[in-house]
UniProtKB/TrEMBL annotation:
InterPro entries cross-referenced by the UniProt entry: LHW-like (IPR043561), MYC/MYB_N (IPR025610)
Keyword field: Transcription, Transcription regulation
Source superkingdom: Eukaryota
Keyword Transport assigned: no
Alphabetized Pfam families for the sequence: bHLH-MYC_N
PANTHER family found in the cross-reference section: BHLH DOMAIN-CONTAINING PROTEIN, TRANSCRIPTION FACTOR BHLH155-LIKE ISOFORM X1-RELATED
Protein name: Transcription factor MYC/MYB N-terminal domain-containing protein
Length: 86
């Protein structure tokens, strides 16, 4: 099973909004965590005017959900963390 499929199943089975798998790289100190794969199980919401907000309500999603998916796909994928810091 691919990592993305496992993350999707976690979201569906447990009810999580999203899941991210971080990969450890580096053999010595410091070890870095980098994005390996992620999944956000929500349909992207349209953004903008009142009409698109009404459409978002029809789809059963909100701007907050769209923000979570945006965070997962764009912001978190660019992050690198040092193990033991932060």
């Amino acid at each position: 099973m691919a990592v993305g499929d496992a993350l999707r199943r976690l979201c569906e089975d447990i009810g999580w909004s999203y899941a991210v798998f971080w990969k450890a790289i580096g053999a010595a100190d410091p070890v870095h965590l980098v994005w390996e794969d992620g999944y956000c199980g929500h349909t992207p919401c349209p953004a903008g005017s009142e009409a698109s907000q009404a459409r978002a309500t029809e789809l059963g999603c909100s701007a907050a959900v769209d923000s979570i998916c945006s965070l997962v796909r764009k912001d978190m994928a660019q992050q690198v963390h040092v193990v033991g810091e932060g």
